[in-house]
Amino acid sequence: MTSDTDLSPDTSDELPEPPMEGPGLFGDPAPAAPAVAAPAPPVALSAGSPVSGPDQPSQPYRVLARKYRPQDFNDLIGQEALVRTLRNAFAQNRVAHAFMLTGVRGVGKTTTARIIARALNCIGPDGKGGPTADPCGVCPECRAILADRHPDVMELDAASNNSVDNVREIREAVRFRPSQGRFKVYILDEVHMLSGAAFNALLKTLEEPPPQVKFLFATTEIRKVPATILSRCQRFDLKRVPQETLRRHFAGIAEKEGAAIEPEALAMIARAADGSVRDGLSLLDQAIAMPTEGEGVSADQVRDMLGLADRALVMDLMEAAMRGDLPATLAAMDRAHERGADPGVVLADMAELTHTLTRFRAVPALRNDPSVPEADRVRGGALAETLTIPVLGRAWQVLLRGINEVADSPDRRAAAEMVLIRLAHLAEMPTPGEIVRRLSGAQGGAQPVAGSQGSGAQGSASPARGAAGPASGTLVGAVGTASIGGPAGGGLRAVAGGAPVAAEVAPAMPPETEAAPAQVPATFREVVALASGRKPMLHAHLVHSVHLVRFDARPEGGRIELRTRPDAPRDLAGQLTALLQETTGARWTVSLSNAPGEPTIAEQSREAKAARLEVAGTHPLVLAVMQAFPGAQIREVRDAALDAYGLPPPDLSMALANDGEPVEEDETGYLPGDDAGPGFAPDDAEPAGMDRP
């Protein structure tokens, strides 16, 4: 008998090798050169006798995925980190007792485990070699493992051997030394299929196995493997193989097979493989069998085989949908349907193109990437210039949801067309960011909101309030009917930075009740509040784009004089006049002036907020808190006495002093000496809790 270390093939008592049956683990060995024999005399054959000739192979056909399976680490593609680590481990004699190989299907998990098994048991051509990262393939150990008849290399399918009894058999078998090889190697494929009891039964053996036993696990669902198992293994994550690497690999195999295939067709197969070598080889095998003998494989044939839409057709669909051209969009979808393209695949291709365009928009240098198809680089680069990131992100969300809708719909074509119609309609609508900018007017050169006709950059800050000048360019608006209103509704509230946020909307009055005229507003802020909830766009312009020059209210009506900014609509005076007539039932006159006027309500709100923050930052109690908590910041100062615009009530804007003279507000927005100001404790108050241990 041979020992577990000296397995020289010239041992006298070695048993003869059994004949090889089947292709083995890695495929058939290289066929021997045929011997030259004398031609046999012709034999008369009866009808029905099998005829053997050059057109009828002696062995069944083997698919490319098995024929070109890697046999050593040099043949593994796309797994450089794995190969480098294992080579160094063999060179330094640091091979672990258990490996966990994880990754998507077809990236080489089981193949890597078989190569490791050969590397552990290889004895070299002379029979004196040790574990090596480059197994020879000619020694008895390598040949036996290749033929899948080595008694010490056992490959089990954990999906069918998932019970605790199967693990007990392994635990009993590992106690015995190898019968022929250097190591006993257990390869458990799809190890995540083991039951919980089976995993628990394997824990102790996996943690402290005998020195001559190695475990190799392979799984596609690493999250289903318990952490107690993972902690006892060296984990290797096999990544998806890049498309360019797959394309080169498939081109080499096609050349070996003598098949002519177009580069674009190879690119389609590599893209459809989704990083899986086995999936790509299966598609390549199918593509090679498509054309008749003597013809090459064209891109159109592969496109038909995969059920893909033409790349140019997908680009036409995207361009038509992004410009909102519904007839062109539906016509392109009809052409894709005529070619046999699946509606779900068409939407998936559009989603992939959207991702490519977003990458072009985010990183323009990617347009020169040679791995990207030329059509995408040329037409896609030009289309990416006309689209923005928010528009592409919105298209991505629509397509992503549409793919699921098509998958669940009984009529896939109708569902896909509905998704494209939705995408084309959304292309004409502004993004949420554009809506916010139009409402706030915070960006220079922003387009006016719907219904406006003026445009331009936002003006600079106006002089201090109270400044007035002669009115010029007066424009009187129209009148209308009455309706309810009041400052309590609040549609938009001005916040710091000038961006509006949604506030509570006043509850609508039941339709059967008749609305009563509102009270005549006493201040301009009450006039602005009337537009809240009724005319959101008008309310936004009154808050951000209007400087009050003069306000005169009387029971029978009143007069308002305003200076508007360039981004305000030209018919703002008419809209405000009609609103006042509807809500109060009185006749108002709204005119436009060139006088500076007071700051806008949004500017006043920002100034008041900054003043409140400044006062809060100087209060002793706040200073003590800031000192106790380094890095703390004052984000907001809340005051229940403020109105919806963050300003004190209008009746506090001007008060009478003891001598009857008017007193102006201070910079904080509160009257001097007013106890109902910011609402802080007195300056000499001791901080609460500061004296506690």
Automatic annotation (TrEMBL):
Catalytic reactions of this protein: DNA(n) + a 2'-deoxyribonucleoside 5'-triphosphate = DNA(n+1) + diphosphate
GO MF entry, a single one: DNA-directed DNA polymerase activity
Enzyme Commission number(s): 2.7.7.7
InterPro entries hit by this protein: AAA+_ATPase, DNA_pol3_clamp-load_cplx_C, DNA_pol_III_gamma-3, DNA_pol_III_gamma/tau_C, DNA_pol_III_sug/sutau_N, DNA_Rep/Repair_Clamp_Loader, HLD_clamp_pol_III_gamma_tau, P-loop_NTPase
Composition bias, Low complexity: 1-10, 29-38, 458-471, 672-682
Alphabetical UniProt keywords: ATP-binding, DNA replication, DNA-directed DNA polymerase, Metal-binding, Nucleotide-binding, Nucleotidyltransferase, Transferase, Zinc
Domain AAA+ ATPase: 95-242
Region described as Disordered: spans on this chain: 1-60, 442-471, 653-693
Homology family: Belongs to the DnaX/STICHEL family.
PANTHER family in alphabetical order: PROTEIN STICHEL-LIKE 2, REPLICATION FACTOR C / DNA POLYMERASE III GAMMA-TAU SUBUNIT
Listed name of the protein: DNA polymerase III subunit gamma/tau
Native source organism of the sequence: Muricoccus vinaceus
